[in-house]
C-alpha cells in the first residue's frame, strides 16, 4: 500500500508540475505569496517561461518514475526506504523552478537537497551507501554555501529580493556572482571537479531515485546558471562564455572517459550524466561567447541545442536508470562482467534499454541526435575570421564534442552488448525474469518520449521558441524547430523524420532481401560450428566489460591512471605450463584521488589537533579564552 500511494502521489505531483509548467510557458500564471510561511519576506512563487520549461521537464520525468515505483518497490522489497519522501522530493524540485524570490529559491533549494539526501541514505546499513551519502552531503552543502553567498551579494547589489524587481548591478558584482553561482550550481549539476558525489550517490540510491536525480535534479543546476547568470545578468562578457565552454568541454570528455571504462551499469550511467551536463554547459558557453562576438544566429542555435539536449537527456537517462533498476531487481547485479544473456530472459527491458543507449550515443534515431547536431553546427558556422578568440575556441570545442560522441558510442555499445546480449556470465543472469507491468509501463512512457524527440522534435518547438525569446543571448532571432530543422542565418538544415524513415526502410529492405535469398538457397547439411578444436562456445570466449574497455584504458592511461595487476598460476608439474591467468583492474576517479583525498587528509589532521586540544580541563579552556581575547585586542590595536 505504501508503494502504491507513493507511486501514485509521485505521478500526480509530476502531472501537476507539467500542467503548471506549460501554463507558465504558454500563458500567464498568477504569482502567489504566502506571507506567514517565512518571516519578513514570506514565500513568493512565480512561474515564467524559463521556470515553466524546467518545471514541465521535471514533472514529465516524475510521471513514469511514479508508475515504475509501484512495481519496483514490491519486487525489491524496499521496506526501509521512506517512500513518502519521493513525492516530497518532486515537489521541492518543482518549487525551485517556481521560486520568484531569492529567499524562496534558497529555501526550496535546501529542501530539495535534504529530501534527496534522505533518499540516497535509504539503505544506510551498507558502507558504500554511507560513504556516498557523506560525499553528497558535503559537496551539496558546499555548493549551497556558494549559491547562498552569490545570491545574497546579487540581492544586496540589486536592492531587491524578487527576481522581477532586480535593478542594475555593477559589472564587478556580476563577475563575483557568476563565479560563485557557477561553482554552486555546477556542484549540483555534477560538473568537474565538483562531480565526485554523482558517481557515488546515483549507483547506491534506489533506481527510481537515481532516475529522478539524474534526469531532473541535475537539470536544476543548469537552471540556476540560466536563470541568474544568463537571464538576469546576461548574456555576459566573453570570458563568461569561455569559462563555461572550457568547464563544459572538460566535464564532457572526463565524464565519458570514466563511463567508457566503468563496469558497474549504474555508475556508467552516472558518469554519462556528467558527460551530458558538460555538453549542455558547453553549449551555454558557446552561445554566450558567440553572442558577444556578434554571431547572433549561431548563438541562438547553441542555446537551442542546450535546451533541447536538456530535454533529451532527461528522457533517455530516465529510461536508462529505470531499465538498469529492472536488471538489478531481476538479478541483484550491477556488474556488467556478470550479466549477459538478458535479451532472451528480459526482451522488453533489453529493447527499452537499447532505446536509451541509442539516445545517449547521439546517433540518428536517438533522442540526443538533433541537439548534438545543432551544437556542432553552431560551432562550425561562425564568423571565425573576424574574431581570433572564436577562431581558436570553436574548433577545439568541436573536437571535444566529436571525441565525446565517439566515446559515447563505444560506451553504450559496451553497456548494451556486454550487459544484455551474448551468453549469461552468472547464474543470476541466466535465471532473470522480465519486469512486471507497472515497471514496464513507466519505461514505455519514457521510451515514447525518446522516440518523439528523435523523430519529431517539432513537438516541443513552440515551447522552445518561447524560452529562446526571453534569453538575452538568443533574443531577436527566430528559430524554427519544425518538420525541417533550419538554422537561422546559417546554411544547413535537417529532417529528422526523413532520416528515421530512410533508416527504417533500409533495415526492412535488408531483412526482406536476406529472407528472400535464404528461401531460394538450396538446402545444405547442418554441421557443428568449428571452434579451432575447442569445445562449444561459452561465456568465457566472449568479451567482458573490462576487456572491451581495456583498449580505451591504454589510450587514455595518463588521464585514467588505472591500477592493474596480472596473476599467473603455473601447473605444479611444470613452470612453463600456465594453469590460470587472473587480471585485476581498478580505475578510480583521478580528480577524487588527486584533489579530494589530500584535502580530506589535511582536514583529518586538523581535526586530530583540535581533538587533542580538548582535554576536558576547565582551566585550559579559560586559558584559551584569555589568549583569544589578547589576540583580538592586539589586532584591534
Describe the structure.
With 637 residues, the chain is mostly helical. The chain has helices at 2-26, 49-76, 85-98, 102-120, 127-158, 171-189, 198-204, 207-232, 238-261, 265-293, 296-331, 342-345, 347-361, 369-380, 388-420, 427-430, 437-455, 461-468, 496-520, 545-555, 557-560, 590-613, 618-636, and strands at residues 32-34, 43-45, 485-486, 493-494, 563-570, 578-586. The longest helix is centred in the middle third of the chain and has 36 residues, at 296-331. The mean pLDDT is 84.
Summed up:
With 637 residues, this protein is mainly α. It has 23 helices and 6 strands.
Characteristic key phrases:
637 residues; two-stranded antiparallel sheet
List the helices and strands and how they pair.
Elements: H1 2-26, E1 32-34, E2 43-45, H2 49-76, H3 85-98, H4 102-120, H5 127-158, H6 171-189, H7 198-204, H8 207-232, H9 238-261, H10 265-293, H11 296-331, H12 342-345, H13 347-361, H14 369-380, H15 388-420, H16 427-430, H17 437-455, H18 461-468, E3 485-486, E4 493-494, H19 496-520, H20 545-555, H21 557-560, E5 563-570, E6 578-586, H22 590-613, H23 618-636
Antiparallel strand pairs: 1-2, 3-4, 5-6
Amino acid at each position: 500500500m505504501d508503494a502504491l500511494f507513493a507511486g501514485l502521489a509521485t505521478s500526480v505531483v509530476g502531472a501537476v508540475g507539467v500542467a503548471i509548467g506549460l501554463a507558465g510557458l504558454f500563458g500567464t500564471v498568477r504569482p502567489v505569496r504566502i506571507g506567514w510561511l517565512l518571516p519578513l519576506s514570506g514565500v513568493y512563487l512565480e512561474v515564467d517561461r524559463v521556470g515553466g520549461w524546467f518545471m514541465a521537464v521535471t514533472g514529465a520525468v516524475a510521471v513514469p518514475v511514479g508508475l515504475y515505483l509501484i512495481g519496483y518497490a514490491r519486487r525489491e522489497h524496499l521496506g526501509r526506504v521512506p517512500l513518502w519522501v519521493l513525492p516530497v522530493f518532486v515537489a521541492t524540485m518543482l518549487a525551485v523552478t517556481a521560486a520568484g524570490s531569492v529567499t524562496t529559491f534558497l529555501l526550496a533549494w535546501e529542501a530539495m537537497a535534504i529530501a534527496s539526501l534522505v533518499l540516497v541514505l535509504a539503505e544506510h546499513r551498507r558502507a558504500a551507501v554511507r560513504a556516498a551519502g557523506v560525499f553528497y552531503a558535503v559537496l551539496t552543502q558546499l555548493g549551497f554555501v556558494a549559491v547562498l553567498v552569490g545570491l545574497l551579494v546579487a540581492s544586496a547589489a540589486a536592492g531587491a529580493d524578487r527576481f522581477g524587481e532586480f535593478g542594475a548591478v555593477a559589472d564587478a558584482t556580476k563577475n563575483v556572482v557568476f563565479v560563485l553561482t557557477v561553482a554552486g550550481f555546477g556542484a549540483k549539476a555534477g560538473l568537474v571537479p565538483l562531480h565526485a558525489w554523482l558517481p557515488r550517490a546515483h549507483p547506491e540510491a534506489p533506481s527510481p531515485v537515481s532516475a529522478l536525480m539524474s534526469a531532473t535534479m541535475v537539470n536544476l543546476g543548469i537552471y540556476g546558471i540560466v536563470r541568474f547568470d544568463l537571464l538576469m545578468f546576461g548574456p555576459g562578457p566573453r570570458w563568461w562564455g569561455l569559462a563555461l565552454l572550457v568547464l563544459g568541454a572538460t566535464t564532457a570528455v572526463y565524464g565519458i572517459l570514466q563511463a567508457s571504462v566503468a563496469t558497474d551499469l549504474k555508475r556508467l550511467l552516472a558518469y554519462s550524466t556528467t558527460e551530458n551536463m558538460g555538453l549542455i554547459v558547453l553549449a551555454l558557453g558557446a552561445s554566450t561567447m558567440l553572442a558577444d562576438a556578434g554571431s547572433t544566429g549561431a548563438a541562438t542555435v547553441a542555446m537551442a541545442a542546450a535546451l533541447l539536449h536538456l530535454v533529451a537527456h532527461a528522457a533517455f537517462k530516465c529510461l536508462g536508470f529505470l531499465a538498469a533498476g529492472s536488471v538489478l531487481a531481476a538479478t541483484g547485479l550491477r556488474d556488467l562482467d556478470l550479466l549477459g544473456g538478458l535479451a532472451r530472459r528480459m526482451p522488453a527491458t533489453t529493447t527499452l534499454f537499447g532505446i536509451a543507449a541509442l539516445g545517449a550515443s547521439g546517433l540518428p534515431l536517438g533522442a540526443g541526435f538533433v541537439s548534438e547536431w545543432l551544437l556542432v553546427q553552431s560551432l562550425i558556422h561562425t564568423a571565425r575570421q573576424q574574431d581570433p578568440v572564436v577562431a581558436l575556441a570553436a574548433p577545439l570545442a568541436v573536437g571535444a564534442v566529436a571525441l565525446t560522441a565517439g566515446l559515447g558510442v563505444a560506451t553504450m555499445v559496451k553497456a548494451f552488448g556486454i550487459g544484455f546480449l551474448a551468453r549469461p556470465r552468472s547464474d543470476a543472469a541466466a535465471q532473470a525474469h522480465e519486469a512486471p507491468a507497472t515497471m514496464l509501463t513507466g519505461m514505455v512512457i519514457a521510451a515514447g518520449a525518446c522516440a518523439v524527440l528523435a523523430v519529431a522534435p517539432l513537438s516541443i518547438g513552440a515551447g522552445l521558441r518561447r524560452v529562446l525569446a526571453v534569453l538575452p543571448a538568443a533574443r531577436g532571432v527566430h528559430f524554427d524547430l519544425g518538420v525541417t530543422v533550419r538554422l537561422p542565418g546559417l546554411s544547413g538544415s535537417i529532417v529528422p523524420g526523413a532520416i528515421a524513415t530512410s533508416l527504417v526502410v533500409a533495415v526492412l529492405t535488408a531483412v526482406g532481401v536476406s529472407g528472400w535469398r535464404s528461401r531460394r538457397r538450396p538446402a545444405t547439411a547442418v554441421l557443428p560450428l568449428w571452434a579451432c578444436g575447442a569445445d562449444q562456445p561459452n561465456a568465457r570466449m566472449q568479451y567482458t566489460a573490462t576487456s572491451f574497455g581495456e583498449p580505451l584504458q591504454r589510450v587514455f592511461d595518463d588521464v585514467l591512471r588505472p591500477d592493474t595487476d596480472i596473476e599467473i598460476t603455473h601447473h605444479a608439474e611444470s613452470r612453463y605450463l600456465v594453469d590460470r591467468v587472473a587480471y585485476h583492474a581498478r580505475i578510480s576517479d583521478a580528480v577524487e584521488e588527486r584533489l579530494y583525498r589530500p584535502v580530506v587528509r589535511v582536514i583529518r589532521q586538523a581535526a586530530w589537533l583540535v581533538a587533542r586540544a580538548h582535554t576536558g580541563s576547565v582551566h585550559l579552556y579559560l586559558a584559551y579564552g584569555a589568549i583569544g581575547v589578547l589576540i583580538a585586542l592586539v589586532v584591534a590595536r
